[in-house]
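Quick illustration, no need to memorize.
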Amino acid sequence: MALVTGHRIQTLSLISIKNIIESESGLQIFIPDAIKTSGTGRTQPCMNIPFFHDNPRLCIASSLKQYLNYTKTIRDNKTDSLFLTYRKPYRRATKQTLSRWIKEALHAAGIDTSTFKPHSTRHAASSMALRQGVSIDVISRTVGWTKKSTCFARFYNRPLSTSHVFATSIMKH
């Protein structure tokens, strides 16, 4: 989800089940809670996660639906948070827990976690979208930057490393 949405871990940690709406094309996830970029007149995030019927193994929307189905029996009436810890007592996963899980996934994928951190997913997603021809306006709206924001240009739109270490580490798994 971090790669597909480009959102901060803080935002992912605030996802409530009641704010997930399914349509034929995918899932929409609304975040009404205050986040880092919240402010008067600013639009709150809405994550759009499409179904990838052609490649179910990469379909985040289907995986989320399965996750909700699997965790239905361990949720109590008070737990509306999407992400739950996987040990009893099951409770809402914190930002720190989600960050640790992303770091573990990056490490399992062969990515050097001394260089690339969980927040690197935001950089990777927004930079890849730009390289694939997505406009900066669409990228900014998707990840929650304002039209006037220079955040992408200053911090995220970085040249790719010419080293083959990154590609080699990913492809050997």
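Residues 2-171 form a domain with the hpI Integrase; Chain A fold (CATH 1.10.443.10).
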